[in-house]
Write a structure and sequence with these properties.
Blueprint lengths: L1 H7 L4 H15 L7 H6 L7 H29 L3 H20 L3 H16 L1 H7 L9 H28 L5 H18 L14 H14 L20 H13 L3 H18 L5 H31 L9 H18 L7 H25 L3 H27 L4 H27 L8 H31 L3 H20 L1
Helix pairs in contact: 2-8, 2-9, 4-6, 4-17, 5-6, 5-7, 5-9, 8-14, 10-11, 12-17, 13-15, 13-16, 13-17, 13-18, 14-16, 15-16, 15-18
């Protein structure tokens, strides 16, 4: 009991441990790599065309509709309720998969899962509102590791249960239901944050009310009120506390949050951070293509080698992707490269490799070649997104980074929605999965060409700059980070 009390009073260890535990169980989805075989198999009996051109686009449209409202609501409610909501909808998701028959239920499932994915921002933001800044790096590492461990173990366990034990897909989903139920229960142990990034809550309300007491409506100093002067323990304090509770929902608090959002937006995308605009552009463009490949890769595998008549190794491939991708991302911290000079060129080169991997998946008739192409594609994306997030985060304050994360994700989802509607949706082209992958490969090829040109320009420009100018620019960037932290 004493150890538990010590852990809770440690400041950062307890919330990090609980959130890591939640992240592990929430991502240990044993059945996720086998969703498509389950839907098109005898349990749900939905055709491949309906899954491709009708069901999966519903998730994309719903995700776009939920993302921005959930982003604001997450900060307003201070993260924990949204994490608990995510756990609840994960449980609902696998209840539907296990026990709800029919196309209508699976249509609702896509909307339900869109809530799950739109609330992921709470998981990534929560920890920064409850721990001191000096522990950000370690806590972030633990959270990422917990997610990776959960996803890898879940995918591996699912593959072993199917390949070695011959377990039916229904029972795989039932096991996943039990695991995500544990995640839902763990979310209640999280401490409630006392602050948020944009809606500053009681502290900001107290400051605002105190300023209003000291200054008039136009900023002039108020005269001292003899009736309330020195009455710190009486009804004046009670009235202040009541006003603070009201001010949390006040127009001033909402306006202050809007002002901070606007200031963060200008700071993030100002001309001083011109290079960060290109990093954000790659983030949005590449993520839109990556999510499309990720969403439809199981359909491609089933097209090359139907799950009804062949062994399925989806879980093993996803586990391998997680490990190889994590190793690629981990290597970023040990590669001695001036990313401000060569980073954009790296984006172009590795995007070209990703484009080739997608074309390989589209044109091969061998399932193992397709598996290899997917591992290569996903590893390139994880490597590049790690560089991108590091470059953006190292030059912005936490408020600016949180907003940039939200905006980039929203733009990526908007692009993905446009691609889905034109290429996938049965109301438009409704293309088959092979043709889709040819388009995705061409899309990544266009991204590669854009950043190869931009990267070559940046590298040539830097080569003609004197070394002392490069050093001065690096120092200036560091100074901007310090200034942004005060902001």
């Amino acid at each position: 009991m004493g150890c538990w009390t010590t852990l809770k009073s440690s400041g950062w260890v307890y919330p990090t441990a609980v959130l890591s535990l939640y992240g592990f169980f929430a991502n240990c989805r044993v059945a996720e790599p086998f969703l498509t075989p389950y839907l098109i198999g005898p349990h749900k009996n939905i055709s491949e065309e309906v899954v491709t051109n009708y069901l999966f686009p519903i998730w994309t449209y719903s995700y776009l509709a939920f993302l921005f409202p959930v982003f604001l609501l997450t900060d307003f409610l201070r993260y924990k309720p949204i994490i608990t909501l995510q756990g609840l909808f994960l449980v609902t998701n696998y209840l539907l998969l296990c026990f709800a028959p029919g196309l209508a239920a699976m249509t609702f499932l896509q909307v339900n899962y869109a809530v799950v994915t739109s609330t992921e921002v709470a998981y990534f933001s929560y920890i920064y509102s409850v721990i001191p800044v000096e522990h950000y790096q370690r806590a972030t590492g633990y959270l990422r590791s917990a997610m990776l461990a959960g996803y890898t173990i879940g995918a591996s366990l699912g593959q072993m249960l199917i390949s070695l034990a011959g377990m039916d897909y229904f029972y795989i989903n039932a096991i996943t239901l039990g695991i995500v139920s544990i995640a839902f229960l763990v979310s209640f142990w999280l401490p409630m944050p006392k602050r948020s990034l944009f809606f500053k809550g009681k502290n900001a309300a107290a400051v605002g009310l105190q300023s209003q007491q000291e200054e008039g409506p136009l900023g002039e100093k108020r005269p001292e009120d003899p009736e309330t002067d020195g009455n710190e323990g009486g009804c004046g304090k009670d009235k202040m506390e009541d006003n603070i509770r009201v001010a949390w929902f006040s127009r001033e608090n909402v306006m202050a949050a809007g002002h901070l959002l606007w200031q963060s937006f200008k700071e993030s995308y100002s001309s001083r951070h011109c290079s960060l605009i290109y990093w954000s552009l790659w983030w949005a463009l590449a993520t839109a293509g990556y999510v499309q490949v990720f969403n439809y890769i199981q359909l491609m595998w089933d097209h090359i080698e139907p799950s009804a008549t062949s062994s399925v190794y989806n879980g093993g491939v996803e586990a391998a992707c997680s490990l190889v991708g994590a190793a690629a991302a981990f290597s970023v911290g040990y590669i001695k490269v001036t990313w401000t000079v060569w980073g954009e060129l790296a984006l172009g080169l590795f995007s070209a490799v990703g484009s080739g991997a997608v074309f390989l998946m589209a044109f091969t008739s061998s399932i193992w070649v397709c598996y290899t192409g997917y591992v290569l594609f996903k590893s390139c994306y994880m490597f590049l997104i790690t560089i991108t997030t590091f470059q953006i985060a190292s030059n912005l304050s936490m408020e600016c980074y949180a907003l940039t994360f939200g905006i980039n994700t929203f733009v990526a989802l908007l692009l993905q929605t446009i691609i889905t509607f034109i290429v996938v949706d049965e109301a438009a082209l409704g293309l088959d999965v092979v043709t889709q992958f040819i388009i995705y490969g061409s899309y990544y090829g266009a991204i590669s060409l854009l950043f190869l040109i931009r990267g070559a320009y940046t590298a040539c420009k830097s080569c003609h700059r004197r070394p002392e100018e490069v050093e001065d620019k690096a120092q200036e960037s560091s100074a901007e980070v310090i200034s942004a932290e005060r902001f």
